[in-house]
Design goal:
This protein is mainly β. The protein is built from no helices and seven strands. It has a single domain, classed as Immunoglobulin-like (Sandwich). A hairpin with a 4-residue loop joins strand 3 and strand 4.
Amino acid sequence: MIEIIAPTLNALLQSPLTIIGRARGPWYFEASFPIELRDANNVLITTTVAQAQGDWMTENMVPFTATLTFPVQPTGSQGLLTFKNDNPSGEPQNSMTFDVPVNF
């Protein structure tokens, strides 16, 4: 359902971070979906919104971009970038996530 091009798995992150990928149309709602950055203790650092770069009302893969700005994290620490489908229904069975481990 989703493919992350950048950052790559276990990438060393610096702010501001440009996020690039592709997601199938159903991942979006109104051409966007949320992204979260958490530290190794699962504490939320910041969030942003990915924006579709094409017609998102399709079953096909649609490119997206996002920019994530976050405070400096301890050198050598780890975190998790979580991509969430936009789920306007709020129904748990419709919720999807994709995690990418990262380093600071």
